[in-house]
């Protein structure tokens, strides 16, 4: 017979956490919270659960940046570090990062116009697919302040799923998206405490070190 504890866990509501990586990153950077950027997404996700929920999966959506070697190095280290976590629990999905160069009309200098593509659509598609899949999820927790997700949140709710909109730090005044969820909250420093990855992670013969800029 299954243990009582495992039965209780199975009876809890199934929750999937979807994270807009760039939206979260820029909000944390704007707050000056560099020490939180080396973030264990699974630990953060678990902090967002209610007592009657169990975490089914964390889905992280991002794109690999271009044209900035230092930022690329930090991002690659972080994605490598995330890759050491439970691969059944944490799934990562990459969009496209487009860099277009143009000349400034005023000074003639060359300027890079960087844009992240596909992430919004990827998030919306995954939320809908998960909602359509029978018995896969009861509650969706969406970490973003991007109003482009308003339509997907409304559609998921029509399918009978509960949506918690989690606004990145300092984005509480972004009212458009949060009014479409069943509930909402804004991430505070308290939620991030205790959610850092180890500063050094050993994988076989290799070590993944937290970038100096992100050390506490």
Commentary on this structure:
The protein has 216 residues and is α/β, with parallel strands linked by helices. The protein contains eight helices and ten strands. It has helices at residues 4-10, 21-31, 41-47, 69-82, 119-132, 150-158, 175-178, 189-192, and strands at 13-20, 53-62, 90-94, 96-103, 110-117, 139-143, 162-167, 183-186, 200-203, 206-209. It has one domain: 5'-nuclease (Rossmann fold, 3-Layer(aba) Sandwich), CATH 3.40.50.1010. Helix 5 runs parallel beside helix 6. Strands 3-2-1-6-7-8 form a six-stranded parallel sheet, with helices on both faces. Strands 4-5 form a two-stranded antiparallel sheet.
Q: Can you tag this structure with a few keywords?
A:
216 residues, alpha/beta, Rossmann fold, 6-stranded parallel beta sheet, 29% strand
- Radius of gyration, in Å, reads 19 Å
Main sheet record: 6 strands, parallel
Q: Provide the CATH topology.
A: Rossmann fold
State the strand order across the main sheet. Answer: 3-2-1-6-7-8
- Distance from N terminus to C terminus (CA atoms, Å) equals 46 Å
Enumerate how many helices there are, as a single number: 8
- Could you state the CATH homologous superfamily? 5'-nuclease
Q: Describe the global form.
A: globular
Query: Structural class, judged by helices and strands?
Result: alpha/beta
Percentage of helical residues? 25-40%
Give the ordered list of helices and strands: HEHHEHEEEHEHEHEHEE
Number of strands: 10
Question: Which residues form runs of ≥5 with pLDDT under 50?
Answer: none
Beta-strand portion reads: 25-35%
Please give the CATH class. Alpha Beta
- How many structurally independent domains? 1
């Amino acid at each position: 017979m299954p243990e009582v504890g495992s039965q209780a866990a199975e009876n809890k509501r199934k929750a999937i956490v979807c994270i807009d990586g760039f939206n979260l990153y820029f909000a944390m950077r704007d707050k000056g919270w560099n020490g939180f950027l080396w973030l264990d997404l699974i630990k953060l996700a678990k902090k967002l659960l209610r007592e009657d929920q169990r975490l089914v999966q964390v889905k992280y959506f991002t794109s690999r940046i271009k044209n900035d070697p230092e930022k690329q190095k930090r991002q690659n280290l972080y994605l490598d570090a995330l890759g050491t976590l439970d691969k059944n629990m944490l799934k990562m999905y990459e969009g496209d990062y487009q860099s277009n160069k143009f000349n400034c009309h005023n000074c003639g200098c060359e300027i890079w116009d960087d844009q992240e593509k596909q992430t919004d659509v990827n998030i919306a598609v995954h939320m809908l697919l998960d909602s359509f899949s029978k018995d896969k999820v009861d509650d969706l927790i969406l970490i973003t302040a991007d109003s482009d997700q308003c339509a997907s949140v409304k559609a998921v709710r029509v399918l009978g799923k509960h949506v918690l909109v989690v606004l990145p730090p300092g984005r509480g005044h972004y009212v458009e998206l949060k009014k479409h969820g069943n509930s909402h909250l804004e991430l505070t420093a308290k939620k991030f405490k205790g959610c850092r990855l180890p500063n050094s992670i050993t994988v076989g013969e290799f070590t993944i070190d937290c970038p100096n800029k992100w050390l506490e």
